[in-house]
Specification:
Distance between the termini: 125 Å
Strand content: 15-25%
Number of helices: 4
Shape: flat
Largest sheet: 5 strands, mixed
Strand order of the largest sheet: 5-4-3-7-6
Number of strands: 7
Oligomer: single chain
Order of helices and strands: EHHEEEEHEEH
Radius of gyration: 41 Å
Length: 229
Amino acid sequence: MVEIEVSQDFLDEMKTELDELISVKRLEVAERLKEAIALGDLSENSEYEDAKNQQAFVEGRIKELEDKIRAAKVITAPLGRSVSLGSVVTIRSTEGHEVTYTIVSSAEADPFEYKISNESPVGKALLGKKKGQTVSVQAPAKVIEYEILKVDNKQAKGTATKAEKAATKTEPAKKAVTKTTAKKAAVKKSTAKAATKATAKKPATKAATKTTTKTSARVSKTKAKSAGK
């Protein structure tokens, strides 16, 4: 199987479409066929023919998407300053027209979204070039020159590195540990304060007990003298 290079976004889009076709569209077409067959006389049943054509289209699209997804290879973020697959490039023609393209594989190319294939004349000419360089592209009528104004190789959405993914995964755990540690420290501090307060009260309690004992002794002594008289 020949691999096709695609962005993570495009792969996600294909998976979403495939899921909808299998779980929704396929069932809708099956129901439509069932209703068309119930009308009878299939030889002159235009509803049945239309439903059969739609079923063929849906099944064909499902197979196409399944094949593409199996063969898909997610492109890594472009590195350096040169134009490569995944780069966003701003160019200006000799006539002064500026346009920004994203360089993608042929499977993902979409001129309406300004996504051009790395196999197209412009895409092929731009590959490996840097900002400030000029490229020549053979058009049907003449050769057109383009100046590269900007090459953006920022990491595309959904292509985070392993280190970044690990950091993202570890962050919640770190926060939880920090929170737990803070709680333990607060409890320890509160316990220490309570212990200090209790210790401070102890001498006062002992003094009160000593005073009570002395008072009781004096009262007993006074009572004894009174009894002797």
